[in-house]
Amino acid sequence: MASEVLLPKQGNSVESCIIVEWKVAEGDTVKTGDTIIEVETDKATMEVESSADGVLLKQLVGEGDDVPVLSPIAIVGEAGEQVEADSAGTPPPATAPQRSAPASDATSTMAARAPQPTVGASAHRNRGGKKISPRARRMAETQGVDYEGIDGSGPGGRIMVRDIEAAIEAGGARPVAGAAEQTKSTAAQTEGGLRDAGPIVAAQATSETPIRGVRKLIAERMHESIVSTAQLTMDASADARAILAYRKRLKGSDSERLQTVSINDLVLYAVSRVLRAYPDLNATFSTGAVRGYDQVDLGFAVDTPRGLMVPVIRAADRRSLAGIAEEAHRLAHGCLEGGVNPDELSGGTFTVTNLGAYGIERFTPVLNVPQVAILGVCAITQRPAPDGEGSVPMMGLSLTIDHQVVDGAPAARFLQALTRAVSQIDLTLAE
Questions:
Q1: CA-CA 20 to 30 A from 408: which of 71, 102, 162, 173?
Q2: Where are the domains of the chain?
């Protein structure tokens, strides 16, 4: 008997997922536990497994669709089994109801959104009436492939990513009309200068990418952060000689566990300890109330191909240096590989973002609302020594606070204490 495969819940804060790519086609045999589809939440990418044995009789959703969790996405049954018409419908559009986010959820707070129509196959018809998934269309446009002559292997003849890839590999795809001429024109401008390239005209758009998934979440949260808070940033510098020397000792130790500890891990450790004495900064502000917490759930920014993600190290103030390093590395790897649990991206009480590796000496971190403070870690550069004797390596630290609920003096005291903790990292570790 045919059974529906439902889109499972992806953490407590996820209400819908974008369908990224089908891993199996209609008519393929699947077993319970086989990956059948890849989906994207506003926080991570993950795979969905079949919940039944049999043949994939029907794909109920297409690539690019925004599907609510616990909605049917496929029908699995016996070969040749007929699918009822009611079972082959499109799931209702995903809608985020208006709600007040819990103060502990530091990454899932989002403004209420109006209902969005589900993107079906008809919405993806392009020139010549061809049906093509959004990812396949973007790949075709990027690679200069004319997909009008390609037969799609997806539901209803829809062109999928695999079809574009096959066309490119076979060398049978024709370049989009005008692509060669555009390339020649660009070359002429490069070689001969603008004077020989004809009249100068306004720039023409070459791509258009819908904002969704992680990028959409970032856009919404950055806008919310700026319009809902009074942000003030203050800068300081910490003597980096001790932290550099300690990191060098760790790297040369016999313990593989300690060899992987980074400068950023040491800063995370110092922040987690200093925050104990400054609970006003280990807090969130929402619905007219400031909430303090009994532990430091420390978020840290991770740059991924899909955009900025902020996983959270739970109870960082109770972990050892090696424990913080191991958890940070595990979470960062999960973000980069798309396997992080959505619940690991919410609930932080303070955030650290590090741009030091890019040589950034000062910047203004944007608050990770509803948190009331965020620390920016900057590059280590040679500067005049505090005692005036020569120059020493100094680490820049930039602290942004929500001035609605955190005053400048307490924030300055926290930053002052943190610079001492970093400058004397060996003493900090001994406490």
A1: 102
A2: 3-88, 121-196, 213-430
Residues recognised as catalytic: 403, 407
What does 30-92 look like in DSSP terms, one character per residue? Answer: E-TT-EEEEEE-SS-EEEEE-SS-EEEEEE-S-TT-EEETT-EEEEEESTTPPPPGGGGSPPP
115 band by pLDDT with thresholds 50, 70 and 90: very low
Interval 321-377: pLDDT, tens = 999 999 999 999 999 887 788 889 999 999 999 999 999 999 999 999 999 999 999
Which pairing describes strands 45-49 and 29-30: parallel, antiparallel, or unpaired?
unpaired
Torsion angle in degrees (nearest 10) through CA of 191, 195, 196, 198? 120
Model pLDDT, residue 14: 76
How far CA 108 is from CA of 41, 56, 81, 330, 368, in Å, comes to 11, 34, 42, 21, 10
Concatenate the DSSP letters of all residues of 237-266 into one string.
Answer: EEE-HHHHHHHHHHHTSS-HHHHT--HHHH
- Helical pair 321-337 and 263-274, crossing angle rounded to 10 deg: 120
Whether the predicted pLDDT of 89 surpasses 60:
no
| CATH no. for 213-430 | 3.30.559.10
Fold of 3-88: OB fold (Dihydrolipoamide Acetyltransferase, E2P) (2.40.50)
